[in-house]
Amino acid sequence: MKRRIGILTAGGDCPGLNAAIRGVARAAYETFDAEIIGILDGYRGLIEGEFRLMRKQDFSGILTLGGTILGSSRRPFREMRLLGDDNVDKVAAMKKTYEDLKLDCLVTLGGNGTHKTANLLSEEGLNVIGLPKTIDNDIYGTDFTFGFHTACEIATDVIDRLHTTAASHGRVIVVEIMGNKAGWLTLYSGMAGGADAILLPEIPYDIEKVAEVMESRARNNKAFSIIAVAEGAMDKKEAKLKRKEREAARKDAGFHGIAYRIAEQLQELAGVEARAVVPGHIQRGGTPCAYDRVLSTQFGVHAADLIKKDKYGYTVALVGNEIVHNKLSEVAGISKLVPEDHQMVDLARNIGISFGD
Ligand code: F6P
Questions:
Q1: Arithmetic mean of pLDDT, 140-156
Q2: pLDDT for res 181
């Protein structure tokens, strides 16, 4: 039986999206009669009816390509059911595009927000399959998301390269790693890059404790230190505030990024020469590493298999060494954060890495 598959990539891009798209397409063409429609720029294309009929050759040569050939956009889930200035009922518009295109199913590649909207569409009766991508690795129900390992390689390389300047000049370098709510990327790259302190959103820090790390290293004739801080890290006082209060307090204080603030505070407290480095979107760029190419392909092929079996309302996942699928309804809306007692945290503490707590 022929199946018309809509496919979209939503939210922040990451390495491995094209490899996953290719995995879905190749397995679909190979194992059943498939027609693939590329929905452009994530849910924006689904809302506005922008799409492209894909040909088999469109999926060639994209395994190693970063970004997404379909384009992406951020359309916050919380706004999906709200009428904006344009008065468009977004959910009705997405259903209409799906029906107009006579789709048998929709494959959505994305992070937490994407999964929430995918679940909403599934509840609205559409046949949806999710694929978990994000450099944040914060999707519930999967050990890893694709994009994470590549970002980890990049962030680790950044930390490695910073070591040379830190050591040569006897400086403290505070490197800000992406991750607003989840600290997985900072935890893994901080560990891989040999950071002396790792500061995560999940473990509020005390700046005095971070300064002690520098001081104790100085006593041991180590004049330099590397601090890996997650973008969304906060100190203990800030952690007691509600998000909006915290943002307001930061605005009043002229906050312009966590790494800059920590570097300034350490200069004052520990009298060290400190620098802040923010690699930003470099962490999401470029070709996927081998692990992500394989994982993306595995996820894509599994999605095609679900389509072949007409099994919808799921998102693909890695559990242990197996590719499985979880119900969208059981995953959507839950973020996988770093538990304070996670084995990796204990392990890091056991080799002397400070979490500043
Ligand atoms: O979710 C991936 C991510 O890179 C986060 O780590 C980061 O907080 C956010 O996206 C940045 O989003 P944007 O690219 O929209 O600035």
A1: 98
A2: 97
Does ligand 1 lie within 6 Å of residue 204's CB atom?
no
Q: CATH assignment of 148-284?
A: 3.40.50.460
| C-beta atoms surrounding 140 within 10 Å | 18
Q: Is the pLDDT of residue 85 over 90?
A: no
Q: Specify the CATH number for 3-146+288-331; select among 3.40.50.450, 3.30.56.10, 3.30.160.70, 3.60.110.10.
A: 3.40.50.450
Question: With a 6 A CB cut-off, is 165 part of the ligand 1 pocket?
Answer: no
Identical fold between 3-146+288-331 and 148-284: yes
Q: How far is the CA of 144 from the centre of ligand 1 (A)?
A: 17
| Per-domain boundaries in the chain | 3-146+288-331, 148-284
119 lines ligand 1 (CB under 6 A): no
pTM: 0.97
Question: What distance in angstroms lies between residue 55's CA and the mean position of ligand 1's atoms?
Answer: 31
Active-site positions read 136
